[in-house]
Structure to design on (230 residues):
């Protein structure tokens, strides 16, 4: 199951913030609200959000400053919300790293379209490399060059052999691999140990992936071998 997208609403006008929260919750997003700019910046640094709706005029720390400081650390999508319709403000926000800029009042349908667009762009950037550099099944993503694995955005720690086994399965997604094939590819042609080592490491992977995230990734084809499937 896909992870729910978390949107952080940084808006000091309670009526507007609550309206946005109700509409976004209705669309299936998970939301949080903060009306103080200083606290908002601290929460963006500490809590896992997928997108920020950021008002410009805020108590504590203004939206422009928040955008600038956040951009120095993370590429989380930021959509600026403001009552100002001045071209210079729009240019300033975009130059500071905002992904988009929408002026109040706005139609909710337009904001939703801009949110979906910003999220699509980020996903494309995260997985724009060829398949050798980004291997995906369901909400599991492997970045071979970075030696990283994530499930629903959560990092998964794997040993070197577990990583090699998972990479081989992912590169042959939907293909049933025999134990001998796995042994030759992951352990090497000169391996002379017990073939049960494959079963042992499959159990290790399942404990860290299937069991931990309550999602089936690795399938057993009885009498043949193993496969990763959608």
């Amino acid at each position: 199951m896909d992870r729910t997208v978390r949107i952080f609403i940084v808006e000091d006008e309670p009526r507007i913030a609550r309206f946005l929260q109700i509409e976004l919750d209705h669309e299936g997003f998970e939301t949080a609200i903060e009306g103080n700019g200083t606290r908002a910046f601290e929460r963006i640094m500490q809590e896992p959000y997928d997108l920020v709706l950021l008002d410009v005029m805020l108590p504590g720390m203004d939206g422009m400053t928040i955008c600038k400081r956040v951009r120095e650390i993370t590429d989380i999508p930021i959509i600026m919300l403001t009552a100002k319709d001045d071209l210079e403000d729009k240019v300033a926000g975009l130059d500071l790293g905002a992904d988009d800029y929408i002026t109040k009042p706005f139609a909710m349908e337009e904001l939703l379209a801009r949110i979906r667009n910003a999220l699509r762009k980020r996903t494309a950037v995260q997985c724009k490399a060829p398949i050798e550099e980004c291997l995906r099944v369901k909400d599991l993503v492997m970045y071979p060059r970075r030696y990283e694995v994530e499930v629903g955005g959560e990092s998964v720690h794997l040993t070197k052999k577990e990583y090699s086994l998972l990479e081989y399965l992912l590169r042959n997604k939907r293909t049933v691999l025999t134990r001998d094939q796995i042994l030759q590819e992951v352990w090497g042609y000169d391996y002379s140990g017990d073939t049960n080592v494959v079963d042992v490491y499959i159990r290790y992977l399942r404990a860290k992936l299937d069991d931990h995230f309550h999602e089936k990734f690795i399938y057993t084809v009885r009498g043949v071998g193993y496969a990763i499937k959608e």
Summary: The CA atoms of residues 140 and 151 lie 4 Å apart.
